[in-house]
Amino acid sequence: MPFLDTPIEGLKIFEPQVWKDDRGYFYEAFNQQRFEEAGITVPFVQDNQARSTRGVLRGLHYQVGEMAQAKLVRVLEGEILDMVVDIRPGSATYGKWFSLRLSAENKRQLFVPRGFAHGYLVLSPTAEFFYKCDNFYSKAHEGGILFNDAELGIDWEFDLNEVILSEKDKVQPAFGEHRPVW
Predict the structure, then answer these.
(1) How many domains would you assign to the chain?
(2) Which of 38, 48, 96, 132 has its CB surrounded by the most CB atoms within 10 Å?
C-alpha cells in the first residue's frame, strides 16, 4: 500500500492499488496491518459520511483535549478540495496549511493526525465524503477557524463569493483566536 509523506509531519497521503477489469474495480480502502506498517497506529472508532453540492465548504473544524481526533478521509463520489491547517502548538509547521484534491476517480485518502483543523470544498456537482475518526464526536470539545482567515491565506481554488457555508462556519474565530487544541 503506497503511502506518501507531505511537507507537514504526520500528514500522509494514501494511494491504494486498484485492480480494474471489464467488471469494474476492486481496492482495499483500509487494512489496519498495512496502515500500522506505515506508522499509522490509531484505533478508528467512528465512521462519518456527508453528501454536499458544488460550492459547499465545510470547515475548518477540530476537537480539543482528550476528545481530539485523527481522521482518515476519502471521497466516494465526486471531487473535493481537502484542506488541513496545522494547529499543534510548538510544531515546526504551526499555522501552515496543506490541500489535496480527493475524488472518487483518484481514490486517494488523507490521514490527518490529531492537532489539525480540517475542512473541504465540493468542486463537482455533488460529492459524497467519508471519514474514519479515532475518537467520538463531542460538541463540548469542538473548535473551528474561519475558512478565509487572512493570516492563513488559504487558496481554496474557488471563488469564495460563491461558497455555501453553515451559519456556524460563517462566524468561526480567526486563526490565533481559536480554541487551543490541547
Answers:
(1) 1
(2) 132
